[in-house]
Amino acid sequence: SRMALAQICGLPVNTQMALKDEYAPHTDDAPVATTYNMPDVYSRRQDLHALELGIKIADQQSKIAMSSMLPTAALIGSYTVSNPNMNDGFEKKFGGSWHIGGVIRIPLWRWGGNYNKYRAARTQANIMRLRLEDAKEMVDLQVSQAAYKAREAMKTYDMTRANLRQADENLRQAQLGFKAGVQTTDNVMEAQTAWLKANSENIDAEIDVCLCRVYLSKVLGTLEYPHE
Known about the structure:
- This protein is mainly alpha-helical.
- Helix content is 62%, strand content 10%.
- It has a domain at 33-60 and 132-223.
- Helix 3 (46-67) packs antiparallel against helix 4 and helix 4 runs antiparallel to helix 5 (185-220).
- The model has no long low-confidence stretch (mean pLDDT 86).
């Protein structure tokens, strides 16, 4: 497995690699919650943030389209200073004058075209809202499925641990019986085979628990990603 991983990574096949969690403590035995605060989950999901941003953009586009149909007014004011003063026979002193103007624009034509733009922008905003609602429903489904799989994985892990304890005890008794001369080598080998199977199943169940917890934290938005 290490050689295959090194080959995929483009490293020499004899490269020795150690996983970050290879010597980490065993699986967390904390129970998996049955209910979650979904508003908090929504606030941590980046994909939902992107849809919410799309809704805000669509709303702003609809406001821009609406503004093109509304009257606009502009007021302009200025004050001009000159020397010589042109308002007093070109007298050589400073003088000035005020200039005030106003503009009012009322759209009369192409009303239908602007209104269609507004309707299109509002429709796009509604589509984005529906997409957001659908995405939230999918998040609810993801959380429910991930939590269910994590709980089932914990049940399987507990069962394999109980089987492993039983296999340990059976192997111990078989070895003691063999030393005492009341058990045969076949009995010891059967106990060793059962212990090996129980240990392998326990390892597989522990891996499944870890994977289910990682996926659950991902759909909950609590999975921490390394930042470089």
